[in-house]
Amino acid sequence: MIDSREGLSIAELVFYVPGLFLAAFVAFRHGFGRESGWIFLVILSLIRIIGSICEIVSVSSPSQGVDECYIILASVGLSPLILAMLGLLKRVHQSMSTGSFLPPRILNLLGIIPIVALILAIVGGTDQSSSNPGTVSTGVTLSRVGVVLFMVVFVVLALITLATFFKFRSITSGEDRVLIAIALAVPFLFVRLIYSLLANFSGNPDFNFVTGNVVIEACMDSLMEFVVVILFLGAGLLAPKIPKSNVRPGIAYEEAGMASQGSVQPVYSMNEQRPVRQEYMDTSPHKPQGYERGGRRGRRSRGPIHALINRYT
User: Fold this and answer.
1) Which tens digits make up the pLDDT trace of 269-303?
2) pLDDT at 192
3) 36-92 per-position pLDDT tens digit
4) DSSP readout, 105-122?
5) How deeply is 67 buried, as exposed, middle or buried, from its count of CB atoms within 10 A (0-12, 13-18, 19+)?
6) DSSP 3-state assignment of 281?
7) 3-state secondary structure the chain
8) 37 in helix, strand or coil?
9) Mean per-residue pLDDT of the chain
10) Portion of the chain with pLDDT greater than 70, in percent
11) DSSP characters for 195-223?
12) Which of 245, 262, 189 is CA-nearest to residue 221?
């Protein structure tokens, strides 16, 4: 007879096994670099598959080692989701025709915090399986610090996502879908973080990772992760593949046509690692009518909602 917790683990296997192959395909399509974001969905799928297997094994053959493995894997799942969100935001900002409004160093520094939180979650989960009360107390503290760091990074990324919509018009066509997927994933990822906060701070046994209420875990944990993964994978399937070159995408079609006629020459920085911001030199004696620096035509500035409507109408 399959109990409810074992059934939830089977449901996760049914979702993440094909999800692993799809995530690997998307990551291969866009590149396995951290800045693509999708590589972290591959990592998340592996974590959830191994964790589900550990949960199923623990039901039939309980052991401290299996329980310890499950606790660690259950607590580190937030890290790939946060890092995937960060990687996709980096991609969106690199596609802006006017350049990102954030220094690249800020996003790079934000990527360090989830890794620190991941280490704390691993050490904390290991310590909580100890028979020494002092070690258990230390593990609880480390786990709490880790989940707080996850929440801090998430709030910052959510604010950056909101601010990015005010630059929606400058995002390359196709990459705007990635931004929309990130925005749609924010509330679901927020609920997932709330579940982790309650599990670490509330003391309510219903939010225990191992013995808690299965319905609550399914709704606030597993289901939220399912939705976020689907949104991110959907964005990866719809987003255009960026060729490996030193020219950043984001030039308007009208600019590309003008450049081919010799009136506008894009000047590129030679960077083999990532695309960089482009500047333009006007070599013609007369600028084309309506042409301004950066290729944008003179018109009254509109808000992000107006830009979003115009993009798809």
Assistant:
1) 333 444 444 443 444 444 444 444 444 444 444 55
2) 95
3) 788 999 999 999 999 999 888 887 777 777 777 887 888 888 999 999 999 999 888
4) HHHHHHHHHHHHHHHHHH
5) middle
6) strand
7) CCCHHHHHHHHHHHHHHHHHHHHHHHHHHHCCCHHHCCHHHHHHHHHHHHHHHHHHHHHHCCCHHHHHHHHHHHHHCHHHHHHHHHHHHHHHHHCCCCCCCCCHHHHHHHHHHHHHHHHHHHHHHHHCCCCCHHHHHHHHHHHHHHHHHHHHHHHHHHHHHHHHHHHHHHCCCCCHHHHHHHHHHHHHHHHHHHHHHHHHHCCCHHHCCCCCCHHHHHHHHHHHHHHHHHHHHHHHHHCCCCCCCCCCCCCCHHHHHHHHCCCEEEECCCCCCCCCCCEEEECCCCCCCCCCCCCCCCCCCCCHHHHHHHHCC
8) coil
9) 78
10) 76
11) HHHHHHHT--GGG-TTTS-HHHHIIIIIH
12) 189
Report helix, strand or coil for 102: coil
Residue given tokens 């598959």 in the structure block: 49
Q: Give the DSSP H/E element, type plus range, for residue 39.
A: helix 39-60
User: For the segment 21-39, what is each residue's pLDDT rounded down to a tens digit?
Assistant: 999 999 998 877 656 788 9
In this structure, the number of other CB atoms found within 10 A of the CB of residue 290 comes to: 10
Q: Which of the two residues, 37 and 190, has the higher pLDDT score?
A: 190
Question: In angstroms, rounded to a whole number, what is the distance separating the alpha carbons of residues 158 and 186?
Answer: 7
Min mean pLDDT across 115-119, 135-139, 227-231 is at 135-139
Tell me how far apart the alpha carbons of residues 132 and 128 are, in angstroms, rounded to a whole number: 9
